[in-house]
Design brief:
The complex is a heterodimer of chains A (546) and B (314). Chain A contains 15 helices and 14 strands. With 546 residues, chain A is α+β, with helices and mostly antiparallel strands. Chain A starts with a strand and ends in a 17-residue tail after the last helix. Chain B folds into two domains: 51-226, NADH:ubiquinone oxidoreductase-like, 20kDa subunit (Rossmann fold, 3-Layer(aba) Sandwich); 229-305, Cytochrome-c3 hydrogenase, C-terminal domain (Cytochrome-c3 Hydrogenase, Chain A, domain 2, Irregular), CATH 4.10.480. Chain B starts with a helix and ends in a 9-residue tail after the last helix. The chains are: A alpha+beta (546), B alpha/beta (314).
């Protein structure tokens, strides 16, 4: 038996996550992922006005702020049977595009980069050489020796103050850090630039959505921002989009390539087997055919065998979760009988359930989406993927890895961001033609059922609602981090993150930096993943959707 | 004087003109309800302090939306807040350390700065079944809060969850969630909102750094400088209300004209906050400006008291 290492809390994620691994011979041989909190939002929704569900479920997460809001609105609209106007569809896609841009930039620079970048080493860098390196790898709008000297001075002042704050006690100097000091200084500078950029990127949400986080502009039937469809507001959005997409193209993607070139071995670490994408960003009322990010399922890494994904093939297991029962059930008919017990990796050890597709665990998220789109021959994706693997000189199979997952996130940001400009022009075109509708009237049926299938920054997301007597009878959601970070299923098969950690090298068990790299590459979001509970009544919750 | 020169130099290095900076400080000073003679002193707070005040930031049952809101702070920029104004000793979402090293940071900072640090709490605390519904590093939220908050010089409950329990405390409140003041029976400054406007946190901290004390609060712990007046009384659409000009359907001509949203369920008359004045994301917009009724998100128990959100209040 190898040595057990526990990392709790996993920081630089949303929510409370515990990861435990067993290390033997310098490598991970077993792994357990455990969600450490629940809040009970689905129970709280019961009996409420269905129109309020999106505002409640949005509060699942302030990082994914727009995504549950959108998924929930779609589920309610599906239940009441309303078709939203074209402008509402476009504005929702623009807000969703901005969410992808914002989420992915923040994830890489502020949640993930410190696993690859040693900030303390940046103090040893030669600013002149850093400037030369930066010129060589990116077209960033800032640079030059003076610029990097100033950034380095700023870090030095900070370190010399002795108050290291959020940078204290990290794994600085760890042998798994491979960037030269100049690479670290460049990345640290871009970390700070991205911190400012993201605040501007989030302003896109405020232009049509009032504020970020927790936008307030969607209603069942459309959007409320009718008064904001003016040239100055659209121009404001366009300007913020342009500044963001410039950053994505000139800094984010080049930084990914530059960092990746020092970590090519991570193209063989951290991979999983099956990939699911519900797809998103509808380009017309016709779904799933018009989805800009296509829907599909890939089993056993067989890209040629990509198939249409069907929600009827999803079941959720609870054999290793803190719920009663062992059966695997379709989410529509799923039971939730919570029963908190001890943390026991041989038995039950997480508040997360274990979703499976045809009995198999599936990775969801940027890598799954990029692989599905690539397999389906989507030309924008094929181009960026082929360019990247040829620049790095790695095979396509290297995508099945921690490196591939991190690169896929940047690649889809480029593709989605590029498409947004066309959507803005489509909105302008509609307005020019006098088509200004943003809302379609509807009436609440006495009863109804609805589903919203989405693909959001962290992966495939489904919301299900059942309405009775014009009130919410039941509400269920299966979210990306439940797919990725869920525990073992009834058959003992590992969840995707658990599977991905097997074989990971661990140089120093006291400082398991390598584990963080792979866990963070999934962009975990635990507040989203755990939301069902009623500890007292042990009620059985069921949602059925036709 | 040296401080002043350093300060100008630093601004210059960052490409910020002194004029812009002082304009911001003027805005912040006004938001805080202080006389204009305080403007230079507010500016000083954001110059180079010798020792940056230590902050321990705890996350409990929440969505991280309040941290995200603070990350959107543009004046001062978030990197300045983190690197040059405050010393954020512990913050799960941004800190580099993980696992036991992260927990060591919390333990060491709590000890080293006992009685000195500002504790910012984000999220509600489960009080049912000994708080078993939320744990970090094997300890319940309740145990952590009880340990850390009591050692703080001041506790700021950021967001409606930390202030009053928030969404997880909505009926039937399955995990027995409460705001931090309630859960621990201690006095805190509440900065509610879902999310709160970051300027109200910055204003509260500036008040503390400047005057050495927390701002004056109302009877439910909210700083009066931000929460002293109702949304309705500050609303730019107020004249439509007075003239009986109401939106009665989203997407209508009246909606495009920006009429009053009262009949669509706007809770502005019952909600105290500075949204219409401060706005969000660098003054870009706020819910009523985007044509959406206010949902009353800075009021205690608003998830129950203010809902259904799209029905007019009586």
């Amino acid at each position: 038996m190898g040595k057990r290492i526990t990392i709790d809390p996993i920081t630089r994620i949303e929510g409370h996550l515990r990861i435990e691994v067993e290390v033997s011979g310098g490598k991970v041989v077993n792994a357990w992922s455990s969600g450490q909190m629940f809040r009970g939002l689905e129970i709280i929704l019961q009996g409420r006005d269905p129109r309020d569900a999106p505002l409640f479920t949005q509060r699942s997460c302030g990082v994914c702020t727009y995504t549950h809001y959108l998924a929930s609105i779609r589920a309610v609209e599906n239940a009441v049977g309303v078709q939203i106007p074209d402008n509402a569809r476009i504005i929702r896609n623009l807000l969703h595009g901005a969410q992808f841009q914002h989420d992915h930039i923040v994830h890489f620079y502020h949640l993930h980069a410190l696993d690859w970048v040693d900030v303390v080493s940046a103090l040893k860098a030669d600013p002149k050489k850093t400037s030369a390196l930066a010129d060589q790898v990116s077209e960033a709008p800032w640079g030059g020796t003076a610029y990097f000297t100033q950034v380095q001075q700023r870090i030095k002042t900070f370190v010399d103050s002795g108050q290291l704050g959020p940078f204290a006690n990290a794994y600085w100097g760890h042998p798994a850090y491979k960037l030269p000091p100049e690479g670290n200084l460049m990345a640290a500078a871009h970390y700070l630039e991205a911190l400012r950029l993201q605040a501007k990127t989030a302003r896109m949400h405020a232009v049509f959505g009032a504020k970020n986080p927790h936008l307030q502009t969607l209603v069942v039937g459309g959007v409320t921002c009718a008064k904001d469809l003016t040239p100055d507001r659209i121009g404001e959005f366009l300007f913020l989009w342009k500044e963001t997409q410039d950053f994505v193209r000139k800094v984010y993607l080049p930084d990914i390539l530059a960092v990746a070139s020092f970590y090519k071995d991570w193209g063989g670490i951290g991979g999983t087997t099956n990939f699911l994408a519900w797809g998103d960003l509808p380009l017309s009322a016709n779904e799933p055919e018009s989805l800009f990010l296509p829907r599909g399922i890939i089993m056993n890494r067989d890209l040629k065998g990509v198939k249409m994904a069907e929600e009827s093939k999803v079941t959720e297991h609870v054999a290793h979760s803190w719920y009663e029962g062992k059966a695997d059930l379709h989410p529509h008919e799923g039971e939730t009988k919570p029963r908190h017990g001890d943390y026991d990796t041989a038995g039950r050890y997480s508040w997360l359930k274990a979703p499976r597709y045809e009995g198999q665990s599936c990775e969801v998220g940027p890598l799954a989406r990029v692989l599905v789109a690539y397999a389906r021959g989507k030309k924008e994706i094929r181009k960026v993927v082929n360019d990247t693997i040829s620049k790095l000189g790695i095979p396509v199979t290297a995508l099945f890895s921690t490196l591939g997952r991190t690169a896929a996130r940047a690649l889809e940001t480029v593709v989605i961001g590029d498409a947004m400009e066309g959507w803005i022009m489509e909105l302008v075109g509609n307005l020019k033609k006098g088509k200004g509708d943003t809302y379609a009237p509807w009436t609440m049926p006495k009863s109804g059922m609805g589903v919203g299938l989405n693909d959001v920054a962290r992966g495939s997301l489904g919301h299900w609602i059942q309405i009775e007597d014009k009130k919410i009878k039941n509400y269920q959601y299966v979210v990306p981090s439940t797919w990725n970070l869920g525990p073992r299923c009834a058959n003992g098969k590992l969840g995707p993150v658990e599977e991905s950690l097997i074989g990971t090298p661990v140089a120093d068990p006291k400082r398991p930096l390598e584990i963080l790299r792979t866990v963070h590459s999934f962009d975990p979001c635990i507040a989203c993943a755990v939301h069902v509970i009623d500890p007292d009544s042990n009620q059985v919750y069921k949602v059925k959707v036709l | 004087m040296t401080l002043e020169r350093d300060f100008d130099q630093r601004l210059l290095e960052k490409g910020i003109s002194r004029r812009d900076f002082m304009k911001y400080c003027g805005f912040l000073t006004a938001t805080m309800g202080l006389a204009s003679s305080f403007v230079p002193r507010v500016a000083e707070v954001f110059a180079a302090p010798k020792q940056r005040p230590p902050v321990i930031w705890l996350h409990f049952a929440e969505c991280t939306g309040c941290s995200e809101a603070v990350l959107r702070s543009m004046y001062p920029w978030i990197d300045e807040l983190v690197l040059e104004v405050l010393s954020i000793e512990y913050h799960e979402t941004i800190m580099a350390a993980a696992g036991h090293q992260a927990e060591d940071n919390l333990r060491m900072a709590t000890k080293k700065y006992e009685g000195e640090f500002i504790c910012v709490v984000e999220g509600a605390i489960s009080t049912k079944d000994n708080g078993v519904y939320g744990k970090i590093g094997g300890r319940t939220f309740l145990e952590i809060a009880d340990d850390v908050c009591r050692k703080a010089k001041a506790v700021i409950a950021l967001g409606t969850c930390a202030a009053y329990g928030g969404v997880q405390a909505a009926k039937p409140n399955p995990g027995g969630y409460k705001g931090v003041g309630d859960a621990l029976g201690i006095s805190v400054v509440n900065i509610p909102g879902c999310p709160p406007n970051p300027i109200n946190l910055v204003g509260t901290i500036a008040n503390y750094l400047l005057l050495g004390k927390l701002p004056a609060v109302d009877d439910i712990g909210r700083p009066l400088f931000a929460y002293g007046t109702s949304i309705h009384d500050q609303c730019p659409r107020r004249s439509h209300y007075e003239h009986d000009e109401f939106v009665e359907e989203f997407g209508s001509e009246e909606a495009k004209q920006g009429f009053c949203l009262y009949k669509m369920g706007c809770k502005g008359p019952d909600t105290y906050n500075n949204c219409p004045i401060a706005k969000f994301n660098d003054g870009t917009s706020w819910p009523v400006e985007a044509g959406h009724p206010c949902i009353g998100c800075s009021e205690p128990d608003f998830w129950d008291k203010m809902s259904p959100f799209f029905e007019a209040s009586e």
